[in-house]
Each structure stands twice: as structure tokens, then as C-alpha cells.
Amino acid sequence: MTTYLLRDVSPLGAERTDLLLADGVVAQIGTGLDAPQDAVVVDASALVALPGLVDLHTHLREPGREDAETIATGTRAAAVGGFTAVHAMANTTPTQDTAGVVEQVWHLGRRAGWVDVFPVGAVTVGLEGERLAELGAMADSAARVRVFSDDGKCVHDPVVMRRALEYVKAFDGVVAQHAQEPRLTAGSQMHEGVVSAELGLAGWPAVAEEAVIARDVLLAEHVGSRLHVCHLSTAGSVEIVRWAKSRGIDVTAEVTPHHLMLTDELARGYDPIYKVNPPLRTQADVEAVREGLADGTIDIVATDHAPHPREDKDCEWAAAAFGMTGLETALSVVQEAMVDTGRMTWADVARVLSTAPARIGRVDDRHGRPIAVGEPANLTLVDPAARRVVRPEAQATKSVNSPFRGRELPGAVVATFLRGRATVLDGVPCDDDVAVAR
Ligand SMILES: NC(=O)N[C@@H](CC(=O)O)C(=O)O
Questions:
Q1: ipTM score here?
Q2: Which residues form ligand 1's pocket by a CB distance below 6 Å?
Q3: Rounded distance, CA 127 to CA 239, Å?
């Protein structure tokens, strides 16, 4: 295994130092370290080192929609984006609702070798919202599932939600809710507001999200369980989570990069690249989620990377699929929205994109660890001064539905290390090395 000496890096933007990565761990930290004879020395004087990023919300599409993404292509894209772990959402075909399917996803993730893949288990059989899936069997499987979600669909029946919250307590699991009241959003195409009225597209009211979050924080309090809110998108949702936390309710929440940056104004061109669930909201909502992330009300940024093949996006708005890719732009968007605006430091970025998601997913024994001697060398090196134009065709993901295409974004992932092995170096995926390590 190659030894790496990262020269003059800024861990989390702190004082420059050298990091020696050997035998899968951070072996030494200090200035002016001697380079072992066989070490690869990386000039990291312009770079910030973060603990490897952890995504709590990735759609890898395999099994079932390998035309959109596979576990191999999606995890390679994740490594390029600086991730060392992803939680793979359950809305595959077949659904990840049995121990057999989550184990298959887990095995394919290991075989691909780019990041650690932690399968999310479905809450209900077939995501149908009626019968609880085999939560215990998935938790006990080799995949050790701790996050359960019907994402893409809401667990709308309060009795089913209550049972799920009660059940996962047995193994310290969490229910990650896709908060969308189905009756209030039947046929909805975009955020309900001035723009939807002008465009004549069916609106998706903020209350459809907020009502479910309000209900669920109360249910979580009632049964004393842990709740995670997926892709929170409205100012009202931020207020409800803030209130719930002030009451001591065990709730965590995520926001996506696109909801930190983009608004419903983009729908004016009727380009379905901007069609997503939950929909892009207003500038006031963008401000509120930025503030919520900065003050800790929102715990994490999660990509909701939702790849779709061209034919599902190159069509009229109403016929197009909901979803956007995000793994390879997430860090840059967070830099632009939060760091370059002075709202967050790089240490905060490490918290919202690594430490906190690892803790929520209960993988914090391996990921989101401090950069310290003896810790697993899961690291991301970022060049904050870089600027690049997003070119979806040049990305590692199999799909091209990036809402940031053509935009110039700050920052670039220069290297990613998974247990001391480089998965990305000089911004390029290490295909040969990852293949050897398999
Ligand atoms: N976020 C999205 O817009 N799409 C997701 C699922 C979902 O609808 O949440 C997908 O799987 O494509």
C-alpha cells in the first residue's frame, strides 16, 4: 500500500502541517516530517484537508435503473466529489426492503471499492406505505442498516410512522422522512407561489412539507425516538425543526446543495433540469435554509443525488422525472453558498458534510473522524481557490441532469483517500489503483 506525505496541508483550514498516511491510518502529524523512502509526497500547501465526506442521501439506482447510474459509476462520482461514504437510498427495483437486497447493494459497493456504501432500508414494503418492511432483519444483516427511508415517497400514515419510529429504537436506527403530504401535492409540478401561477404549473405548497414535519417531530417526541428530516426546503420547516430542537426532541435535518442555491424562478424556462422533489422554493426560503444550516438547526448537507437518463429529462416539464445529480458539485455549492459568504468556516463544512452525517447514520466509528494520529485515513483535499465551469458530460456520474451545468463554481476536490488509499489524485479518479485494491 502506498504511503502518502501531504506536505503543508491545512487540516480544516487550521495551521499548516504535514500528514503522513500509512497502513490505512493517519500515522504522523507535524511540520517538516521526513518522507519515508517509498512515500508519494503531495504538495498540499494550497489545500484544505477535511475528513472524508459522508452523504446520507444518494440514489445509486442499482438494482433496477442501471441506465441512470450503477453502484460502480455512482460511487466513482462520489469519490470525485470528495466522499468516502454514501448512504444508498432504498427506491431501487427491487426495493431495498429485505435483508437480501440490502446485502446485495452492500456487496456491490464493496466490490466497486470507491467509497463505503451503506444501504438505506425501506420503511415499508415496496415503499407502499402500508406494511413495515423487515427492519430488524436489515439491521441484523451484513449491511448493518441503521437508516430507514421510503424517500421518493412519504410515510404518510401516522400509525405506520409511529410503529416505524418505535421499532428502530431497538437497534438505534433512525427513520429519515421524505416529508410530503400526498393529498396536498397530487399532480404538483413545482413550488406553489407567484411563479407557478404565472407559468400555469400545478403548485406544491410549502405546507405539504411543513405539516408532515410538524406531525413527525411530535410523533418522535411521543415515542421517544430519533427522526431525521430529508431535504428540508422551506422557511417554515426550518422554524418547526428549530422549535422541536428547543423542546429537546431528537430530530435532525438535512438540506440539499440545490436548495441552498437555486430558486423557483429557474422554472420560467420550463427546463425540467430544474424539476426536483421537493421543488426549488423562493429566495426567502433559500435565505432561511442558509441561516438554519449556519446556526445548526439544519444538521447536515446531503446531496439527494438523483440521476436520470436523458429520455426522462429531455421532455416537457410535466412528463419529466423529478431529480438532479449532485455528488460532484456538492462541496463547491456549499463553499459558494456558505463559506465564501462568510456564514461558515471549513470546520463547519467538515461538520455538516462529514462528522454529523456519519453520526446520524451511525457510521461514526469509521467515518467523520477527527484528523488525528491513529484515525482511519479517510480524507478529502480541497483547493478553495480553484474555479471551474460545471460540464455534466465530463462528470463521472452516468447521468447529465446537473442544474449547475455551465455555471462557474468555486473550489475543487484535488484528492480523496479511503483508508489511506487514493481514490482520486490531481482531481482524477484512480481507476487502476481502485481496481487493484478490489
Ligand atoms: N429528489 C428527487 O427529485 N428524486 C428522487 C426521489 C424523490 O422524489 O425524492 C429520485 O429518486 O429521483
A1: 0.96
A2: 59, 91, 151-152, 178, 276-277, 304, 306, 322-323
A3: 28
Q: Which CATH architecture has domain 4-49+374-437?
A: Roll (2.30)
Pick among 3.40.50.720, 3.40.50.300, 3.40.50.1370, 3.20.20.140: CATH of 52-360: 3.20.20.140
Query: Model pTM?
Result: 0.98
Q: Catalytic residue, from 304, 312, 348, 383: name it.
A: 304
Active site residue 304: yes
Predicted local confidence at residue 253, as pLDDT = 99
Mind listing the pLDDT tens digit for each residue in 137-172?
999 999 999 999 999 999 999 999 999 999 999 999
**Is the N-terminal amide bond of 63 cis, ω within 30° of 0?**
yes
Question: Whole-angstrom Cα distance, residue 232 to residue 230?
Answer: 6
The reply to whether domains 4-49+374-437 and 52-360 share a CATH topology is no
Give every CB contact of residue 405 below 8 A, 6+ residues apart in sequence.
273, 390, 391, 392
Burial class (CB in 10 A: 0-12, 13-18, 19+), 165: buried
Q: Give CA–CA dist 178/155, Å, rounded.
A: 7
61 is in an annotated binding site: yes
Give Cα separations from 424 to 17, 188, 266 (angstroms). Answer: 21, 40, 33
Whether 330 contacts 257, CB under 8 Å: yes
Residue 148 assigned ligand-binding role: no
Taking phi over 0 as left and psi of -120 to 50 as alpha, with beta for the rest, 420 belongs to: left
Ligand 1 pocket test target in 277, 312, 327 with most atoms within 8 Å of CB: 277
Cell of 395: 462528470
The 10 Å CB-count burial string (b at 16+, else e) for 97-124 is bbbebbbbbbebbeebbbbbbbbbbbbb
Taking the C-alpha atoms of residue 421 and residue 129, their distance in angstroms, rounded to an integer, is 41
Q: How far apart are CA 153 and CA 122, in angstroms?
A: 10
Domain ranges in the chain are 4-49+374-437, 52-360
Say if residues 93 and 117 touch (Cβ distance below 8 Å). no
